[in-house]
Amino acid sequence: MTTTVLKTIVTIAYIIICISLVIVVLMQEGKTSGLGAMSGAADSYWTKNKGRSSEGMLVKITRVLAILFVVLSVVLCTNWLG
User: Fold this and answer.
1) ∠ CA 43-45-50 to the nearest 5 degrees?
2) pLDDT at res. 3
3) Is 40 left (phi over 0), alpha (psi -120 to 50) or beta?
4) 76 with 28: CB under 8 angstroms?
5) How far apart, in whole angstroms, are the C-alpha atoms of residue 39 and residue 74?
6) How far is residue 48 from each of residues 5, 43, 51, 56, 71, measured CA to CA in Å?
7) pTM of the model
8) Which of 30, 12, 13, 22 is nearest to 61 (CA)?
9) Model pLDDT, residue 56
10) Per-residue pLDDT in tens (0 to 9) along the chain, 82 residues
11) Helix axes of 54-77 and 2-27: crossing angle, nearest 10 degrees
């Protein structure tokens, strides 16, 4: 009985993480900034301090969600929960 409840909770968490991961990835900007990136004009104060901005926070959140996604995928695919 408890393994069924635990598996249900992990499955719900997995679905929430999947949806969150898609949303966070879609919120991120592209790596190139148009034609200015080709000429080197994109190397500005904004790009040097991107890790401290909201874009940097989105990258960190994406990494955490991706790790949780992989871990829960392995847990759900194996019979660790019974």
Assistant:
1) 90
2) 84
3) left
4) no
5) 44
6) 47, 7, 8, 11, 32
7) 0.72
8) 22
9) 86
10) 688 899 999 999 999 999 999 999 999 877 665 545 555 555 555 555 655 678 889 999 999 999 999 999 999 999 877 7
11) 150
- Residue whose tokens read 């900034």: 33
Token pair recorded at residue 41: 């004009």
Residue 81 has a pLDDT of: 76
d(C-alpha 46, C-alpha 62), whole Å: 20
Q: Which two tokens stand for residue 30?
A: 């592209």
Show the tokens assigned to 29. 């900007």
Q: Measured between alpha carbons, how far is 81 from 17 in angstroms, rounded to an integer?
A: 19
The continuous run of DSSP H or E covering 33 comes out as none
Amino acid at 72: L
